Amino acid sequence: MIATVPGFVKWIFKNRIWEGPADEKAIYLTFDDGPIPEVTPWVLDQLKSFNAKATFFCIGENVQKHPEIFKKIIAEGHKVGNHTFNHLNGWKTSTPEYVLNTLKARQIIEKNIPGKEPAKNALFRPPYGRIKSKQVRELQKRDFRIIMWSILSMDYKGITPEKCFQNVIDHARPGSVIVFHDSFKAQKNLTKVLPRVLEHFSVLGYSFKSL
Fold first, then answer.
1. Could you tell me the residue ranges of all domains in the chain?
2. What is the mean pLDDT of residues 140-150?
3. Which is the catalytic residue, given 78, 83, 181, 182?
4. Which CATH class name applies to 7-208?
5. Residue 78 among the catalytic residues
6. What is the pLDDT at residue 118?
7. Which of 34, 72, 191, 208 is deepest in the core (most CB within 10 A)?
8. Does pTM top 0.90 for this prediction?
9. Helices (H), the chain
10. Average pLDDT in the 56-75 region?
11. For 26, how many CA atoms within 13 A lie in the half-sphere containing its CB?
């Protein structure tokens, strides 16, 4: 897997969102797989120290287990999105099962959002980036926006923190959507790389926004 998404892929799958607005000097940090004790609260503290906003794509089962951390994400001004109930691989899952699993996650997410976020604003990111076109269409019928990415940090891979850092800074530009993971698997790289990324782009005059 490569850190960036080729342009032809974005063109073929243009009904999915790959980047944020590029008309200002902002990048869009996203965090998948939480909320997780220790990891997600640490991420929130790092973001707060740089006045950064981000988007968290949450697994429904983790929201169910850790609602207090999920509510803290929202209370601190970040956006949340759906990452299925238990991290399904769309390529290996039937469309009816995939949709039901995602709707189950939405029910848990909305239950824990004060005032309940309107479904038409629902963000969805497919685990592993693997989703069938039919699954995309079925979710879009249910008012989901399918959010992909422009840069994958690969923090969850067996790479060095330096390589993870370079994956981000070598490719980021205004509008880039960058994927990190607030998970135990990614924790070793994340704790070394996220503060450096926040500092690096702050010095360059970037802001960090949610989708």
1. 7-208
2. 96
3. 181
4. alpha beta
5. no
6. 56
7. 34
8. yes
9. 7-12, 39-49, 60-65, 67-75, 95-111, 133-141, 161-169, 187-203
10. 97
11. 16
